[in-house]
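call fold(seq) -> tokens
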Amino acid sequence: MRKLPRSALPYYQRGTAYMLKGNFNQAILDLNKAIAIDPYIAEVYVDRGIAYQQEGNSSLALADYNKAWELIPGELSLGAKVDPQLIEALKKILKKQ
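ret:
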């Protein structure tokens, strides 16, 4: 049986690479592994939220964006990717569903 790396970084980096290639399903799988290893890296939740959003799963995207803001509220690097207006827009969409 193969052991998982002790660091979430390789999974995060590979997940991000998959996202850049448009392979959002594979990105989500790697980002899930990164979160299983270290659930306190906000950027991983942001990227997984983007992948979920690209896959059409707004509710999971919103949950990940909220988790990222909870971990590092107002961090500038996160604000560049996910601003509060986007989170509010997703909440409105989910209420209509």
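The chain is about 75% helix and 0% strand.
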